[in-house]
Design a protein that fits this description.
This protein is an alpha+beta fold. Among the domains are: 1-135, IHF-like DNA-binding proteins (HU Protein, Chain A, Irregular); 240-313, Alpha-Beta Plaits (2-Layer Sandwich), CATH 3.30.70. It is 42% helix and 22% strand. The protein has a 4-stranded antiparallel sheet with strand order 13-14-12-15, with helices on one face. A 3-stranded antiparallel sheet has the order 1-2-5, with helices on one face.
């Protein structure tokens, strides 16, 4: 049974898919970019790499096969072992083994497995439907020249525009003066606003002035006798994602603690994270920025091969 279909399905939703006894496929995120040399836009991609040292059974692939094929876990594990054995036999014979839409494998002269990824497939879900495309850069283009040529071709419109600007230069200041003069008057009395633009406002103001003053005095006395309630400050809730650099996943917590000690001696700030499948993942460090996490992964991977970036909420 060909298990590559299950591997492809898991690569869309997981950063690492391990084939027990063979190796692990790791998804590395690359943001959108522009290739100026070829004038090409490239969408975000998840590039697939392979690490033959990640060959322990973390239960992800076997569990998915067991669930999809309606078989027990032991039969699914035997199925994976048989497939891996057939692949290794082909590689030992010097044959090239192709995992459709993932990549190809071949043994080099030293007998080590070499992986060549298939770059035509993007396993980044947010880039679904996006493809690379070329664009033509604009050179020696000045919009001011086009506007000048457009105006010169029509002298009548140019003359009409000058008349409109001349009239606007006269009318706008007059309108500003007419609007501003009434507001220069003293129309604010005892916290009551009256506008000279409404002839009824002044009469209403005179009739109700005494009542307004009484209400203002009563409000002042009340504010002096009643203590102000303390202001309640609700702290803002901020939620930011963080990115962990995972160096290993272990079924035994003791093994995870051993790697934590190794990381701490190297100067990292490690911690143990609980995986959904019951394993213990070891994080070398946390980063709040994905680009920083991807950059730090390379330095961590030199001493701990197979490290990958995991996003946590």
């Amino acid at each position: 049974m060909d298990i590559t279909a299950f591997i492809r399905e898991l690569l869309f939703s997981h950063d690492c898919v391990i084939v027990p006894g063979f190796g692990g496929f790791i998804g590395n995120y690359t943001p959108a970019r522009i290739d100026k040399s070829t004038s090409t836009f490239h969408p975000p991609v998840k590039q697939i790499s392979f690490n033959r040292n990640l060959n322990h059974n973390d239960g992800l692939l076997v569990g998915r096969i067991s669930e999809s094929a309606k078989m027990n876990y032991g039969d699914a594990r035997n199925l994976v072992e048989e497939y891996v054995a057939s692949v290794r036999k082909k590689l030992e014979k010097g044959e090239k083994v192709v995992f459709d839409n993932i990549g190809s494998f071949i043994n080099n002269q030293e007998g080590n497995i070499q992986f060549e990824p298939d770059t035509s497939v993007n396993y980044h879900l947010d880039s679904f439907g996006l493809e690379s495309f070329n664009f033509q850069p604009l050179e020696n283009y000045d919009v001011r020249h086009r506007v000048a040529r457009h105006i010169d071709k029509d002298p009548a419109k140019r003359s009409s525009m000058r008349k409109i600007l001349w009239r606007a230069a006269i009318i706008i200041p007059l309108i500003a003066v007419i609007v501003a003069v009434p507001f220069k008057m003293n129309i604010f009395k005892s916290k009551v606003e009256a506008t000279s633009l409404n002839p009824l406002a002044s009469a209403e103001f005179e009739n109700n002035k005494s009542a307004v003053d009484e209400k203002a005095a009563a409000a002042k006395d009340l504010s002096e006798t009643v203590p102000a309630s303390p202001e309640v400050v609700i702290p803002a809730v901020s939620s930011t994602d963080s990115y962990c650099i995972i160096t290993g996943s272990f079924r035994s917590r003791k093994n995870a603690e051993t790697q934590v000690d190794m990381l701490r001696k190297e100067g990292f700030t490690p911690e143990i994270l609980n995986a959904p499948n019951g394993f213990f993942r070891v994080s070398a460090m946390k980063c709040v920025d994905m680009n920083k996490a991807l950059g730090s992964k390379d330095s961590v991977g030199k001493k701990f091969p197979g490290s990958w970036v995991k996003k946590i909420n």
